[in-house]
Amino acid sequence: MVQKVIKAFTTAWKGLSLTIRHLFVGNTKREIVTVSNSNYFKQLEHGTNTIQYPKQQLPVPEVGRYQLDVEMDDCIVCDLCAKVCPVNCIDIESIKATEAIGQTSDGTTKRLYAAKFDIDMAKCMYCGLCTIVCPTECITMTNQYDKTVFQLSDLVYQFSDMTPEDAAEKRALFDKQQAEKQAAKLAAMKQKEGGA
Q1: What residues have CB less than 8 Å from 93, skipping those under 6 apart?
Q2: Residue range 145-173, pLDDT digits in tens
Q3: Are residues 17 and 103 in the same domain?
Q4: Domain count of the fold of the chain
Q5: Coiled-coil stretches, from where to where (predicted)?
Q6: What are the pLDDT digits (tens) for 10-36?
């Protein structure tokens, strides 16, 4: 009986000593080091495994997948990123231009206007597929990972700078050009039929 009481006290003391040790070790601050540091995983043995956020922040790896960003000057509105997205978080609406509207930084000719280019980061699963398929490399992942918002709708980022009025004007110009081409084609066919 005495042996059982002694064993119970020693077992309880081992558990309490572990708790007390962690209680006092928890007051130390964690040193911020990168994952490539050889001491990175040994830090968990000495001190807390949390950091004092936002006063301390973990370094962001170069290959991290975080916030998406689009350089609209380089975008040719090819829609590949939206097609490859497994969760449909990219919403693109394009308008055909009546002529070439410029060039990207790599020399690709732009022939489409981006009436709408929205990315819903609440849906995004950070797979990076959209950055891989982009032919002009205009869609990239930045190193920003803290995008805390109060409304879920604030996570929809709009990259197109075209107003609805401009979009309507560009559509009207394209429709007018198409109507003129169709009229010219019909006139040429009538003239060909009349001369034959």
Answers
A1: 114, 115, 116, 117
A2: 888 889 999 999 999 988 889 888 888 98
A3: no
A4: 2
A5: none
A6: 999 998 988 887 777 666 666 777 777
